[in-house]
Amino acid sequence: MSDRRIDHLLRIIWMAYERESPLRDAIREEYGNEDFDEVLQTLMQEGLIIAEGERLRFTPRGKRAGEEIIRRYRLAERLFADLLEIPQSDYEWLACNFEHILSPEVTDSVCTFLGHPRVCPHNRPIPQGKCCVAFVNDVKPLVQPLTTLSLGQKARIVYIFPAHKKRWGQLHQFGVFPGNTIKLIQKRPSYVIEIGGTTLALDDEICKDIYVKKLMN
Ligand SMILES: [Zn+2]
Ligand SMILES: [Zn+2]
Questions:
Q1: Ligand 2 geometric centre to CA of 126 (Å)
Q2: Is the peptide bond before 117 cis (omega within 30 degrees of 0)?
Q3: Could you tell me the distance, in angstroms and rounded to a whole number, from the CA of residue 41 to the centre of ligand 2?
Q4: pLDDT per residue over 186-204, tens digit each?
Q5: CB 13, CB 66: distance < 8 Å
Q6: Least distant ligand from the CA of 115
Q7: Looking at the DSSP assignment, which residues form a beta bridge with residue 213?
Q8: Backbone φ/ψ region at 179: left (φ over 0), alpha (ψ -120 to 50), beta
Q9: Which of helix, strand or coil describes residue 155?
Q10: Count of CB atoms within 10 A of residue 33's CB?
Q11: How many angstroms separate the most distant Cα atoms in the chain?
């Protein structure tokens, strides 16, 4: 079985693991009954999966490998969806290919570039990498929290973390959503932005979770 196929399989299994549904079913669903035994055998030979009675589980090695693959996949999703604004139907295919070709170094660069996002466009968690924990500073993030802008800086909203989902409706009403352009006009005592010809005061907490890409003024 090719590395590529194993990567793909690991991602499928990881998603089942995340949903807490049986790994066995996920493999069967993806590969059918015919290939099931062969696929399972390979995963076990590679030391990625072990069987505990009827239940399949990740080995520590398998878990690490799964985490890495899902991290690459979801970062690729973020990259395509937010920054390049590629429609989902196209970026799914791209992300599937990207997950196989990103080296660990490039993955961390992409992560840093995107401001170490914690979730994918579907709000599924992105496992953290070395770059998210220890602050590596050789790549300047292209996407960063609104709070890091200087006064008068214009920026385009790239994504908003879902922690403030309750308030999304309200923010949306004022035009605070991905794709729109804002200008930071005040930082103290509170953040004020200009958006669509009106000014809007925002909580510090929310500003930290609004990620933007600087525009030329
Ligand atoms: Zn996703
Ligand atoms: Zn990171």
A1: 9
A2: no
A3: 34
A4: 999 999 999 988 999 998 8
A5: yes
A6: 2
A7: 143, 156
A8: left
A9: strand
A10: 7
A11: 65
